[in-house]
Structures are given as C-alpha cells and as structure tokens.
Batch of 3 targets.
Target 1
Amino acid sequence: MHTIHNWETWLGTDEAGKGDYFGPVVVAGVHVNAACREAFAELGITDGKTLSIKRVRQLAEAMRCGYNESIAVVQKMPAAYNALYDDFRRRGKNLNHLLGALHAEVIETLHARSGERHVCVDRFANADVITPQISTAIRRDLRIKQVPKAERDIAVAAASIIARDAFLAGMETLSKKYEFQLPRGSYRVTKAGKEFVALHGASALGEVAKLHFSLTEDVLAPAVFRFSAL
C-alpha cells in the first residue's frame, strides 16, 4: 500500500454509514505496529469500500481474531444518531462535527490502550473537527494527520473494513428486528422507506433511518393517487 508517513506505529480511523439513509453510523480505529502491519499486508487489507460484502466480513473476522485489542469501534444506531445529530444542530454544529466527535472517541480509546501518539485519518472535512473534541489531557501528545483518500494507508484501510463490517452487522440487526430488508445507500430508497412506514408507522422511521436526510420528506409524504377520467 502507499505510504503517506514514516511512522513505525500509528492509529488509523475511518467511518461507514454516513451516506446511507438506513442503518448506523460507525467509526472504527485500528492500531498498527510492525507485526500486524505485515499480517494485514498478507491478508490483502485494502479500502473496505472497494471490497465485496463477503470479503469485508472475512477480513474483519480475521483481524478481530488476531488483533482485537488493536481495534476500537463506536457505533451509533439510528435512534441514538438522530438524537446526537439534533443535539449538535442545537449547538450550531453540523454533521462533520458529529463525525469528528466519534473519531475523537475512537482515538482516545486506542490511545488509552496503547499510548500511541500518531494518528492517520481519512479526511472528511476541510476544517479540523477532530482535535478540538479530544480531551485536553492528551491533545498535545497526539500528532493527527488528516489526509484525503487515506485508505491507501494500511491502518486506515483496516479501519475502513472494520467500520464497514460493523455497519453491515447493524443493518442486519435492524432488518431482523423489523422483519424488513433495509436497502443500503441513499439512491432509490424512498420506496423502501414508504413501505417501512406503512408497516411500522412513521414514528418507527427514526429507529432505522437518518432523519435529517432530505428524502425523509418524500418518505413521509402521503401517497398521491391519480384517477383516469371515465
């Protein structure tokens, strides 16, 4: 994989689910050292967004089996995510600030375990929305590099796979709970949303979907019936 720094050990973080109407938002982090870096390379770790679902699940399981203490995950299922999003909006913040808080939580967790100072993040915002949300007790100790398309870094690639796997697991959990197959993505999901509301009611939509998406208005809009002239 491509090298974007010369660190011997470091943390990589990435997120999944932020562009999907249904399902959770997940941020994952992976701590990499020389031993697991070699193992990850042998496994064929690469950007989780480019892999099949089957391969994501296989690689995530392999990483957890051998390096579970090097992995941290923060998952916000839709109900918790919607409440958190509303809280950030009330404070004049946006989605990037919310994601920054989740990345900060993952970084703090792995730093507490490993003492690692170096962090590589797949950049998702123009401004630094992560560092200000990290505890002041450790903020000065960290060197955070936020890079576009950072999945070329093996730690970030590993985190992208873990995050994607957790997102898929969350989607499965919700689909089973409501006995309704929730589609991934945000394109052509309005029909599924309407069907879900018809089955479970509008009040349940926030349990499975990210309500701030603009298509929520379409999902909740009453059906329009057209009658042809006799």
Target 2
Amino acid sequence: MESVEATLHRLRRYNLAMGSFHLIQGIVMVILSNQYSVPIRNSFLHYIQETNTLNAMTEDIVLLRMGPMVAAFLFMSALAHFLLASPKIFDWYAANLKRGINYARWYEYAFSASLMMILIAMLSGVYDIVALIGLFGLTAMMNLFGLMMELHNQSTQKTNWTAFWFGCVAGILPWVGVTIYFLGSANTGDMPTFVYFIMGSLFFLFCLFAINMVLQYKKVGRWKNYLYGETVYIFLSLTAKSVLAWQVFGGVLARSDY
C-alpha cells in the first residue's frame, strides 16, 4: 500500500501535469477562437409621461467574446494547480489534505465553476446581467458550502451533512433556471445541437463532484483514503472543463461564419 508521503509526492506531479493540460488548452482557445460574442443586457422600467405608463426596456451593456471566457476558466485552473505544486504552498496544501480538507479546491471552483455556469447559461439564451450575477453567486455558494462541509466536519465525530445539502440546493437552482431558458429556446427550434450535449454532459459531470464527496465521507472502497478522493476531484475538474471548452469550440468558436 502506498504511503501518505508517496501519494502526496504523486499528487504534486499530478497537479503540475493537470496545470499544463489546462494551460495548453487555454492558449489554444485564445489563438484559434473566432470573434463569436454574446450580448449582456440590462432590463429596467421606463416611465412614459404622456401615457402615464411604465414600459419594460432592455439595453445591451457589452458584447462578451466567448473564446476568452472559455480560456479564462482553463487559465484559472492552470494557475491553481501550478500554485499548489509550488514549494511553500504545496506544504500548506499537503498539511490540509492530511486533515481531510482542501481550501484551495473550493476557492478555485467558486470562480471557475461559476464562470462555466455563466457560459452554459449564455449558450442557453440567458443574457440578463442580474440573472447571470445570480447564477454566478449560487454556483459559488455551492462550492463554498463544499468548503464548509469539510471545515465543519473537522470537529465532528459523526459526519454532519447539513452543508452538503445546502450546497446541493444552491447547486441545482442555476440548472433549473438555465433549463427553463433552454427549453424555451428549444421549443422554437433555435437551439443548436451542441448545446443539448453541453447541458447533458456538464450536468452529469457536476453531479459526479457531489457523488465523489459522498463516497469520501461514506469511506466507500478506495475513497477511505481522502487523498484518493482528491485525485478524483482533480480528474473531474480537468474533464468537466475540457468537455465544456471543446464542445463550445466545436459548436461556435471554430466556425468561419461567426
């Protein structure tokens, strides 16, 4: 059986490798992506004095290029992996892993997974800035509840699942909202096929993160070792980000008609 120190040494190399994979993909997205952009809009009420009525008005605030957005969440993960593998930070990372907690993972996910959720939402037709902020915030809270789950259970003899269930609620709500927009667009026949695959594959992968946590705390099979669960988290993160990035690239960013 591999010793803890040997596993940690392997995790250090694993983080370096995963950081390189994310970095290379991010660079490819920046170089090869086209100019495809989506509008970010703001809706407000406008008072018309002549008719004494309030009308809903919508204005475009900014056009966001999709390519740099995809590259951004890849670069976030690359930076996180490289930092964790660096000398002093790795010692902090390893000490936390021995205690069954990884602060860095949840903070990175709070930003990168939230940006991924925003990207999925925009591909489904969500352009309102307030809605996007809400989706970002809920996804970030889902991941911060993941941190709270690990932090809280540092001091419990029996696993307390409160933070886990709160995180599940925060995590499912963005998918409910995005699905409403997705179905509305799909009913008009305007939804590209690749978005169907993104919705299905990313929802499935997001669920696997929660399942990984359950297996860790239930200590099922190889998950009895917290470090194995950490390895799975790293693999799932690369998989989810790569699947989203390349589906978006193939769907819109590599096309010459945008």
Target 3
Amino acid sequence: MGKNSFDVSDLKRWQKQGIISEQQLETIIKQENIEIKPAAEKKSGWNLITVLYYFGGFLALLSFTLFIGMSWDDFSQWARFAVALIALVVIGGLGLWLRFFQKFETAGGLLLFVATAILPLLVYTVASLTGFWAEGASFYESRFAVLVMGLVSLAGAIAVTYYTRFPLIALLAAIFTHLTLIDIVQMIWGESFLFIESTAIISAVFILFGIWMTIYKMKNYAFWVKLYGLVWFLITSTILFFDSESILFGLLFLAVYLIMAGISLFLREIMFMVFAVIGVYIYIFNLVFDIFEGSAIFPLILGIMGVSIVLLAVFFQKYGARLFRRKSDEKIEPVVEE
C-alpha cells in the first residue's frame, strides 16, 4: 500500500479544523523549511474569473475610449500626448508586472491588450505635435500619416504578441492590418475608393489566413483573426447583397455561406457554422421578404423560420459534439490563453 503525502495546503486545512494550532503550523513550516508559494492564477478556460478578466479588460478600454471622445477637444496637443503616454506606460507596466512577475498571465495579458490598443493614439499625438498630421485634415488628406500610424501600431502589436504569447492581441494586429490595407487602397484608387468592397476582400483574406494559421497549429491566435474576418465579411457581404438587385449575386452570396458551412465541418470549427447559418438565414429572409411582402403568408413564413432555428439548436445539441470533435483533441474547450 502506497504512502500518503501532504503539502502546505493540507497543513493549513488541518489548522483550520483545529487538528494543529497556528503556532504548530508555523513551527512545522520553519522546521521543514517549506516554501509557501504565492497565490496563482486559475487555470485558463471559460470560468467566472476569466469572464471577469475579459469584462474588466474590455470595460477599461471602453472607458478610456469614452474619456478620450468626450474630453479630447479640451486638451492641448501636449496634454493629449501626456495622457496617451502615461496611460500606455502605466497600464502596460502593470500588465508586464502581473504577467511575468506575478504569473497572472491572463490578467496581465488583458492589460497589455489595452496598452497596445492605446498605441495608435500615441502615434497620432506625436504626428500632430510634429505637424505630420494636419489638424482637421480628412482621412484621404492624412493618408500618409495614417499609413505610418497603421504600420507602427501593427509592428507594436506583432512585437507584443510575440513577446507575451497572448492570443487576444492578434485581434489588434488584425485591426491595424485592416487600417493599413484600407489606407493603401485609397492611395491607389483615390479618395472615392470603395470601402465596402475593399473591406469584403480584405476580410476574406483574413479568413483564409486564419484557416492557414489553424492548419499550422496556431489556432489560439487564428481564432481572433478568423473572428475579425468573419464579422467584417458578414457585414460587408450583407450590405452588398441588400444593395444588389442581381439574382446571380444573391446566389453567389448563398453559395459562399454554404461553402463556409462545409469549411466548418472540414475544420471541425463551430464558429464558421454559426456565421454560415446567419448568412443562409439572411438570404432566406431577404428572399421571403421580396416574394411575400404584404402577403398574409409572410408572418407564417417567419414563424416557420423561427421553428427551424429551434430545431437547428436541438440538432446541434444532439450531434454537435460528434460533428465538431477534432481527432487531435477529443475534448473541445474554448481557449483564451496559450
């Protein structure tokens, strides 16, 4: 029969239960030279602590954005620079301390995410101080300054992602890449460039790049790149679909989202299926609205669509685990930290 073992947590539990006194606990720890480790962060995953972390991180970013939006005009250019620099240094420094010295990796990573999101603002204030970004200039008139801001911010996001290995910052890298590519497009096509069409193409590239990252075992980072691409692709393709009166474009819209459903099954990723279902329902709703607008049967069709959504949810609960289970990892959990 194997011997039982115990650690400091057992000793503390015995002390609370009255089996040993507090003085005996301290004596044992000193006598045996037991090292008491500091409190560690809970294992990553979707738990209450993680939800609080992400809620707090995004709330901090939102509050800073609102503060800047409401008070920006009241500040001088030097005051704007000071606010951006102090916020970046303080939040970034706290994030580094938590992540690398206190081993609270998710909490520290989220603060570094907020600090990285402030970087474009700092670049903008520096460009304004130097006169490189003219006050009141349009997006097109400031295209070269925007390009510099985008490239510097992108380089910073890539560097932070590489140094911290925190996947969420890949989302900022995608945002800064989008900004940079849109600016390059307007440099080529001029002020009247097509933003919606350009963004649709760029978002499709993000999706393909995210798939490539997934195949090459970078799925934690790929998740945010794909999510960003899918959201923008859904928005832009839906706008183009509603604006178009072409039946062929409507069929192309439907075909794209059916292919997306196939990609979902191939990659065993629920995220693609969610967007595929949304796209298909948008097509069906638009088709039904065009055909049955003003008809008494229109509410009935909507009711049928609602029931079908419920049945889809039932189908997913019964067969989702089988359809989306990866061969490499039998148990799928949302990953928020690598």
